[in-house]
């Protein structure tokens, strides 16, 4: 133990005497550890940021849509066969859409899993003007479940509900941005007001019944004034406005806590398939953000693995560099080794001395690597617009790993030194 | 059954030996010593009385490349006895086997044949670790080329042997300072070897050789690289160590004048001791 402390001091003094050489030797370790730490930092930041945005979007939602059936190995009219599949985009027609009955039966089939079903239909983008003030809106028809599915918070007034929904009244919910732009931020002033939305060549009049809080997109660079915020109207009203056929091409299911949205997306798509058995154009498809998250996690772990392999190679190269420099150092210090042996050093203590020296090189390299890695990772995270979160465990693991490299690559040279014949070593010039 | 008993008896004997006084040891004699005794004797700190044989070499043969076509016999049967407190010179021309003899005496190399007992330790029975311990505690080396550890202060250099004998830091430091004071190097303790002159380096080396209070000091051409005035200074230190502290010193040199200063001169020629005579040095 006493020798251990002395050995560390000794190693440090021998590194000090050859600073450039020590630094060059450490380079491989610095690059290896640095890149691992950097990628872990960026990955962590990315994961945190994705997770938090997933939460706000609602990772537990299941989106049910329609997808075109693939016509396999069917020769198209033009006679060409495109990689065994022909694909021709078709707009779903009235008979292809989901009906209220289908949604209702799905709800009845899985009462424990389904919390809400959210439906929406876009009417179009428009502008509301009042004197010099204006607000950009996108008009969407929604059902009640939409508000639950999208975590929409009502600041003032009521959500669109009950009779207004069924009757298809011209009532609307506007965003707080809308209120800021047109009513000076006073939400109570907006309630009951009639607004005219000019969309394309038409204009529609809605009575404001409520104000919701708009969840600003963190990546958006638009000013508050120009931001397009949704203006929600009852789904029936939207259908009437659009003169669209009854039925929906897509809807969202909010599942209860504890239900895997990814599994439920497949389950509900399967359930709905029975309505499409005779439909040769479309079939139901389920999709959930959870699967996106797992895709993302998958991708991240693959990138991490790739970088880790590169870092691993760099560490091995670095380790060989350390081994090489230790061999050089030992042959330079042959006489010192001989002297130490003459003064009573055992083979073991010589071995420990040089292993400790290799470990010290590697740990210092590791520390530099950690600093470089955290710095680089934070810069990268900042450049990508995430908050950087270095991981403590990766730092500890890196330090232990660089220590391991020191032991592994230091052992052979140290052992060689310890086995030196003291007489030859003493006479070495 | 019988064997077991015998072993037990031997063990008792060893324990007795350990606790015996130096006088008893003298009585028992080297030849009669229990073979196992030497293995455990590493722990035993014996203080041989002045005049007791401390280096006992009989018929030492050293061969290199044994069993190979270029087998070489350097020492052909060397007998050397050095008593405690003696200042002995071994002289010989280069090629006489001086270096080999020094390596054997200093436990740096193992003899091929013969018997060698150093301060009660049978060198033929010693394992590698034992040899390290012997070099550490029983022998103080002084080399022609000083062999101080580079980039390490004089103080640390003197501390080095004590590091390997696991001496406590405070003790180590105190003793190293005393030793440097003894060789009048106390004002250069922090200097590294490249900041010291040859004579100063050799003085540090002598202090280092004394660190673990060894049984003998083995000096290999200690003045060989120094001018005569500095060489004189170094020799004076050796005389002082011998006369004041009663250190046993074996000086290996090719210089007859230096050898004359010692008490006894052994002449080595072609791997054999060919002559032994008294020097001018006064016996303690």
Largest interface: A-B, 25 and 29 residues
Chain oligomer state: heterodimer
Number of domains as seen in the coordinates of chain A? 2
Question: In total, how many beta strands of chain A?
Answer: 13
Order of helices and strands of chain B: HHHEEEHEEHEHHHEHEHEE
Mean pLDDT of chain A: 82
The total of helices of chain B stands at 10
* Distance N to C terminus of chain B: 52 Å
| Largest β-sheet summary of chain B | 6 strands, mixed
What features would you highlight for this structure?
heterodimer, A: 429 residues, alpha+beta, four-stranded antiparallel β-sheet, four-stranded mixed β-sheet, 14 helices, 13 strands, elongated, B: 284 residues, alpha/beta, six-stranded mixed β-sheet, disordered N terminus
What does the model show?
The complex is a heterodimer of chains A (429) and B (284). Chain A has 2 domains: 2-54 and 294-427, no CATH class; 61-288, no CATH class. Chain A contains 14 helices and 13 strands. Chain A has 429 residues and is an alpha+beta fold. In chain A, the strands form 4 sheets. In chain A, strands 4-12-1-13 form a 4-stranded antiparallel beta sheet. In chain A, strands 7, 8, 9 and 10 form a 4-stranded mixed beta sheet that branches. A 3-stranded mixed beta sheet of chain A has the order 5-6-11. Chain B has a domain at 1-45. Chain B is built from 10 helices and 10 strands. Chain B has a 6-stranded mixed beta sheet, sandwiched between helices. In chain B, strand 9 and strand 10 form a beta hairpin. The longest helix of chain B has 18 residues, at 2-19. Chain B starts with a helix and ends in a 6-residue tail after the last strand. Residues 1-48 of chain B have low confidence and may be disordered. Chain A binds chain B through residues 2-3, 6, 10, 13-14, 17, 333, 335-336, 338-349, 422-423, 426, and chain B through 103, 106, 108-109, 128-129, 132-133, 135-137, 141, 143, 147-152, 160-161, 163-166, 168-169, 208, 212.
